[in-house]
Design brief:
heterodimer; B: mainly alpha; 2 helices
Chain lengths: 726, 61
């Protein structure tokens, strides 16, 4: 029996509009932070001073400084731009692949509005400094719960549609969507576990090295299952559609799908090479990362080879141009990723702009261009018209491509240059560039060029907005698209019913065994050594919990996003121990909820900064970094000298920490404020010696206390007081 | 590093889910035909009858 039904295009339109709007916003914020990062040190005699003044002004504001806006940029691009883009593509393709309308219109709209509300909540809370500081998982716990609920709504809607489908076969794209849903759900829940202190503040359930491992297990797989698998699914639908020819090898698509999802999940530790993570876990991450080249390139080749014999059409069709560059960028970044996971290259690239270049080849190229290609393909079809201007789309393509080039290449140079400068020794064994700032000033040109690249990319996207606008104006939305398909015959038991085992015996049994072995191997390799070594985190007796004042200072450090520019992880290289001091030990971080190792050094590492400078140095430096370091790119933090320490929150913070197993004495929450005031008075007295009159009640005092504590525990003899300036 | 047990458990759980999905897919014959699905998605079946007054069914198959 032929059934007639309608595809829901209205929901696709909604998600697509959100993609465009938040894409522009996310790219704009990206451009702002890029300029903020480099413009800060601009002096009034520079000819471009007034050009960049709006950006430096923003950087000086409490809510708009780099540290607060950078998480907004990353979250907007990942969850608002790519997220909505993924949903638009899934809602469009899923209905057609399954020959069914979405399971429930109400759920579709609940999903849409819920997701947009979450984005708005993120856009409000992140500039306010309400953050967990776990990269790409910065949103606080109430928003995390909302994300979980909306994700479940999406899941019900998707699986509901799958159940009522009129097409027996699940096209490979759908498998990618399913993998996305299942894995993101798990990653999000495990990494977001936290102990709430208040509605807007929580502490990560995990501490130090464990928190780092969970975070980068999440961070890596967020890239894998939020930015990669759903977009591979979209590629497998929209690429063949746009080229009007079947995918090169359907068999390959299935094999590379299963290989990809079984390998990806184990590669996370490659984000922590040379850190305090146990060595075997690091090596394991490297091995799986190298293995990933095969399934990743399986996808890339399959996408590109789909165009075999049709490459001439790429010349005329902007949609195909975007997709070809997108898939090429995917191939490049999935080769680069495993290479950067080798210890040798990682020792050069890590903490530098190389990483930033790498993620932007993926973000701008793969996700950005695939989204653009998809939009240019969808809009004329959904509005029953022709694209307003092919030449504008071509202009977008070329400006965007130039944007990627201008963005990535200077940052490759920057990363390499800076890393080599960090490691450069004189013949008699001293660091050539003792002042970290010298290595930053050297690469300012690259920061300007990548700002230009970002601006180009954004301009291209704006051209698209105009083009889409005009296209829509010339057509009419087909809100409900008529379709018909035969009903699915019930009680289907397979074409070779009763003989399924024959097929299984031919090949799948080998596939089953191989996938089992892969999963089991990953598990066993990670479990056995843990049994052998009783504990990988030796307890260092001198390491003590933070005092209440330091704890508050740490919360300010988290709130300001200091981790976006400063690491707290001295790697065991001579160039680092020479510059910063003793390398970081796992046992030093056991009270760090959350960990603050960071992933990028625009400023120097801070793990051994405690005691390095007098209190007064920090006091002057935080107010105006250029006063201590001429040309410094760090923004000033004037508000810390006015905002009062929130003492009412202190007991709750102590109790939350106790709940996480931090050994404060029983009843300490009641003495915490007194303890805090006593320590603040000491710092104020210290500052007074250097001629500074400071209030003991302002945030800067707490931050100084925290900075002076950093990395000092292991230098202490057991049972002594806090070390002040050396 | 005890957290690694949690990560392994979670990762393995997901892997087991995928393995079950894979087993189901194989058993139900999802992968028997590895040629035509790629071609089938290309043709969007447009309704043969023009709509006017035709009611759309909402089956719960």
């Amino acid at each position: 029996m032929i059934e007639r039904f309608q595809y829901d295009n209205k929901i696709v339109k909604a998600f697509m509009m959100a993609t465009i709007v938040f894409g522009i916003v996310g790219m704009l914020v990206g451009f702002i932070v890029a300029v903020e990062l480099v413009a800060q040190g601009t002096t009034t005699d520079a000819w471009y001073y007034w050009l960049v003044r709006p950006f430096t002004w923003m950087n000086e504001q409490e809510w708009l400084s780099f540290g607060r806006l950078r998480p907004l940029h990353t979250n907007a691009i990942i969850f608002a731009f790519v997220g909505n883009g993924m949903f638009a593509g899934i809602y469009y393709s899923l209905q057609r692949l399954l020959k069914a309308r979405m399971f429930n219109d109400g759920l579709s709209w609940l999903h849409f509005w819920g997701w947009q509300l979450i984005i708005v909540a993120a856009a409000i809370t992140l500039p306010l400094g309400i953050t967990t500081s776990k990269e790409y998982a910065e949103l606080e716990w109430p928003i995390d719960i909302a994300i979980t609920l909306i994700w479940v709504v999406f899941g019900i809607n998707m699986f509901g549609t799958i159940l009522k489908r009129r097409e027996r076969h699940l096209y490979v794209a759908i498998w990618f969507y399913i993998a996305t849903w299942v894995t993101v759900a798990m990653l999000h829940i495990v990494n977001s576990m936290a102990m709430p202190v208040s509605l807007f503040k929580s502490y990560s359930m995990y501490a130090g090295v464990q928190d780092a491992l969970v975070q980068w297990w999440y961070g890596h797989n967020a890239v894998a299952f939020f930015l990669t698998t759903p977009y591979l699914g979209l590629m497998y639908y929209f690429m063949p559609k746009a080229a009007n020819r079947p995918v090169y090898s359907y068999k390959l698509s299935i094999i590379h799908f299963w290989a990809l999802i079984f390998i990806y999940i184990w590669a996370g530790p490659h984000h922590l090479l040379y850190s305090s993570l146990p060595d075997w876990a690091q090596s394991l991450g490297t091995v799986f990362s190298i293995m990933l080249i095969a399934p990743s390139w399986g996808g890339m080749l399959n996408g590109l080879l789909t165009l075999r014999g049709a490459w001439d059409r790429v010349r005329e069709e902007p949609v195909l141009k975007f997709m070809v560059v997108a898939i090429t960028a995917y191939g490049m970044s999935t080769l680069e990723g495993p290479l950067l996971s080798t210890k040798f290259l990682n020792s050069i690239s890590h903490f530098t702009d190389w990483t930033i270049a790498h993620v932007h080849v993926g973000g701008l190229g793969w996700n950005g261009f695939l989204t653009f290609g998809m939009i240019y393909w969808l809009v004329p079809r959904m509005w029953g018209t022709k694209l307003y201007s092919k030449s504008l789309a071509n202009a977008h393509f070329w400006i965007g491509t130039l944007g990627i080039v201008f963005y990535a290449i200077p940052l490759y140079f920057a990363g390499f240059t800076q890393s080599l400068m960090w490691k450069q020794f004189t013949p008699d064994g001293y660091l050539v560039y003792k002042n970290f700032l010298d290595t930053v000033l050297q690469i300012k040109y690259a920061y300007w060029m990548r700002s230009l690249g970002g601006l180009l990319f954004l301009s291209g996207a704006l051209i698209m907005v105009y083009n889409v606008w005009k296209t829509i104006a010339s057509g009419k939305l087909i809100a409900n698209e008529d379709a018909e398909a035969p009903a699915l015959e019930k009680n289907y038991v397979g074409e070779s019913s009763g003989h399924w085992h024959r097929w299984i015996e031919r090949r799948p049994i080998q596939m089953l065994v191989v996938s089992l072995v892969l999963v089991a191997a990953g598990g066993i390799i990670e479990i056995i050594p843990t049994f052998l070594i009783e504990s990988n985190v030796p307890t260092i007796t001198q390491v003590k919990p933070y005092t209440p004042l330091e704890l508050h200072g740490r919360d300010i450090y988290v709130m300001e996003g200091c981790y976006t520019c400063h690491s707290q992880m001295v790697r065991p290289f001579r160039s680092e121990t020479e510059r910063y001091g003793e390398y970081s030990k796992a046992g030093e971080f056991i009270y760090d909820h959350p960990f603050q190792w960071g992933s990028k050094r625009t400023g120097p590492d801070l793990h051994r900064v405690g005691g390095k400078y007098p209190d007064s140095w920090h006091y002057y430096h935080m107010f105006d970094p250029t006063s201590m370091n001429a040309g410094s790119l760090m923004p000033p933090y004037a508000h810390m000298y006015e905002n009062l320490i929130d003492k009412e929150m202190i007991p709750a913070k102590i109790r939350a920490m106790q709940g996480l197993g931090v050994p404060y004495p029983e009843g300490f929450d009641q003495q915490a404020v007194a303890d805090l005031e006593a320590q603040a008075a000491k710092i104020v007295a210290n500052l007074k010696k250097d001629g500074i009159e400071a209030s003991p009640d302002v945030d800067i005092i707490a931050l100084i206390a925290y900075l002076q504590r950093l990395g000092t525990d292991i230098k202490q003899q057991p049972a002594t007081q806090v070390v002040q300036a050396q | 590093m005890n957290v690694i047990f949690l990560l392994i458990a979670a990762s393995t759980l997901v892997a087991v889910i995928f393995l079950a999905a894979f087993t189901w897919a194989v058993r139900s014959g999802q992968f028997e035909d590895d040629r035509s699905p790629a071609v089938r998605i290309l043709g969007d079946h447009k309704p043969t009858i023009t709509k006017t007054n035709a009611t759309t069914t909402k089956p719960n198959a």
